[in-house]
Amino acid sequence: MDSGPSGVGQGRSGVGQGPSGVGQGLTGLVGGAAYPLGVMAETESARRPRRDADGRLATVQDLLGVALAGLVSGLVILLIFEGAMSLVRASEFGDASGWIAIVLPVWLFTEEFRAAGFGAYRIIVAVLAAGFGVAVGMTLAGLTAPIFPNLVSGGVGALGLTVVYCVVWFYGLRWLSHRVG
After folding, report:
1. Which residue ranges run through the membrane (predicted)?
2. pTM, whole model, 2 decimals?
3. Does residue 53 belong to any structural domain of this protein?
């Protein structure tokens, strides 16, 4: 390894002999590494999803992301199950209800309810979120039922319920808990 005017190693290529350090090849890199020293050590990975001090998901994006990931996981498992059942000719593909995929989001909502602590406000918000979510989900499922099989119409309904519940729960809980004290 050559040493330039600044006394810093020039790397294997020996490119750049200027005193300013511009164009010095691999100057400042340890042993010809691909990254400058400390770049990889400086990167921090934020834990996702973020939670607040009470254990609730901190942002609506985190809540929606986790709920939708659970819904997609449930749909994938349901599709695999439906495929297996149709291969053994136990049922036609698409006969199962897509509403079954909502199991993981409901589990998440239960954990969020538990983490919200005690108080009547959480019950009020949960009932409102469930009511609006079921209304939107049933409407979407009813609109898609004549066109698509049960699997798709139930999945669309479950998607509507999940999104509406997440938004009403997150913003309703924070608004009402601030109003109550």
Report:
1. 57-81, 93-109, 121-145, 151-173
2. 0.69
3. no
